[in-house]
Amino acid sequence: MEDSFYVALIFLSLRSLTEGTQTARAAKDWKQRANDNLKLFTSGSAFDLAKIIGSLTELSETKSLSLRESWTLMRARNLLVCEFSEVMKETKTAAEEQVDQALKARKIAVVSGKPNYLPIGELSQGV
């Protein structure tokens, strides 16, 4: 399959209401969250990086993250931005803006209570 299709799927998981919430809600204490995120990190999957970013971003909206969690969020975000910039042959700044837009859409969907999905074709055109 085409790389842009996978990028579109990853953006959909970033925008999803339930993708990140499962990890954040399932692990109430920091030790379990750290173990869960470590497992996701070591998989090397861009989808797992999106899960980390989604769950820790959501968690950061309800409470302040620990130093380790902040570092994990920053590292996962940077790795995903680098992955997108390489795959889509864009600058890191452009890839970062797209990640920011996906996270903003996620926040709007959470606040409104309505999913904020775009069809794959529209999303991949924006990517």
Describe the structure.
The protein is mostly helical. The protein has a single domain, classed as Methane Monooxygenase Hydroxylase, Chain G, domain 1 (Up-down Bundle), CATH 1.20.58. It is built from seven helices and no strands. It has helices spanning 3-15, 21-26, 30-43, 46-62, 67-88, 92-112, 120-126. Helix 1 (3-15) packs parallel to helix 6. The model is unreliable at 17-21 and 119-127 (pLDDT under 50).
Q: Brief description of this entry?
A:
This protein has 127 residues and is mainly α.
Morphology call: globular
| Percent of residues in β-strands | under 5%
CATH first level: Mainly Alpha
Question: How many helices?
Answer: 7
Provide mean pLDDT, rounded. 76
**From the helix content, strand content and strand pairing, which structural class follows?**
mainly alpha
Give the N-to-C terminal Cα separation: 16 Å
Could you tell me the number of beta strands?
0
Radius of gyration: 14 Å
Helix coverage percent = over 70%
Query: How many structural domains?
Result: 1
**Uncertain residue segments:** 17-21, 119-127
Q: What would CATH call the architecture?
A: Up-down Bundle
